[in-house]
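Bench log. Compound arrived from synthesis this morning; before running ITC I wanted a structural hypothesis for how pyridoxal-5'-phosphate sits in the protein. Inputs:
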Amino acid sequence: MSIATLHGHPAPSSHRRAGGASPPAPPARDRVRALRPAPTEPGACPSAPPHGSDAVLPPVVSAGLTVPTVGGAFVDYANLDHAASTPALVVVRQAVDAALQTYSSVHRGKGYASQVTSRWYEQAREEVGRFVGARAEDEVVFTRNTTDSLNLLARSLPRDTTVYVFESEHHAALLPWNARRTVRLPVPGSARDAVLLLRSALASSRGRNRLVVLSGASNVTGELWPVAELAAVARDGGARVVLDAAQLAPHRRVDLDALGVDYVALSGHKLYAPFGAGALVGRSDWLDAAAPYLAGGGATRAVTERATHWQTGPARHEAGSPNVIGAVALAAACAALAAHREAVEAHEQALEASLSAGLAAIDGVETYSIFGPGHERLPVAVFTVEGVDPSLLSAVLSAEHGIGVRDGRFCAHLLVDALLDDPYAAEPGAAVRVSLGLGTTPEHVVRLLAAVASVASSGPEWEYELGGNGWEPVADPRDLAAARPW
Ligand SMILES: Cc1ncc(COP(=O)(O)O)c(C=O)c1O
């Protein structure tokens, strides 16, 4: 196996790594206890951090899910697609259950449950802010996801803002900006290269308002970007920084202040809280000066026949009834991840080490890297197997082994083109990505490696045909029409 760097040269093998008058009133939380369902497990309070020690991993609700294979067996589902979406944490489901019990109108409702719900919504905002190290003057706007957060920021930029973005970004971070005022930087070949590219781009252009878009970790390779270093370069160049933390936040601590960034965007569904909420956290001045992202109720202070007076603060951009349940879910996930940070990192580092070493040992497997061998990465790998279409490989992993991965171009076409770099290819290149997390066990990785090795050496065991959705098992015996959950 070899590692292809950006320029397609296999790395030397020595560097291989895939790399109340009476008694005092009880605290507010206790006073609403009567409204909550009896918790089935510890940690059911929507606004309370989960119980448990840092040494213990927070469990996911999908643990123990079995899926059919074409061979007729049922196997423990190996979800190796965390970079796309993560399973919910058990504490997230508990928080959602508890919040549903009192769920009612938010903000303007005078009923007791409405007031509790409104309070939880605002507490969720504080929890998310804490999770990313928000400063006192930062605001937390609830959105739908990272794409929504970055589009909100794009619409809030002062008109003359120049945006600097690497072509390696996920399309959600590459595309929302005014194309005429965007400077695209090429995919860097190393971390040092990234710093030089940004410094030179900032030095060779002028502008009163500038914004540098960075991602914390690549959604394709899982490699960590040198965010603090790049943010310092941006600051020297008079630019603000927005951090796309969609991939980083589920795995590593993100701290706005420590990293020196101005905004951070993230998605709940990638953070073990798949209930439709995300967030944009950061400086309020541009957001308060911008037109509301959505016009409607909740975003206004007063409406007269002649004028509309808009709110400032998060409400300005959160018109319409808010996704309280999503916000509670996101907050519960943030609290759990913060409380179990060391255990999460230790678990994932061990998984990453066996994944990268295992892939490196398989003949015919090529893994890809932006920054070069040995660069720090999340438990993610992107690879191809010589002579095997990535779509076929992912179909085989699912059908024969009960393993879920992703193949394709990962909404980062320019990066995938740069990584695969095959000028003679008839079609745009594609690869397979495996991405691990709290739903992954060591056995899942062992099974993946054995399956990839088997396909690499002997091909699939079942017969497959190419259809509209890529490769599919011929006469697939699995019952894919599972009963509806509603
Ligand atoms: C790095 C990165 N940024 C942004 C996004 C977009 O996230 P969402 O689809 O939750 O808006 C993704 C999704 O994969 C991503 O990986």
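What the model suggests: The first strand starts at residue 2 and ends at 4. The chain has a mean pLDDT of 90.
ITC booked for Thursday regardless.
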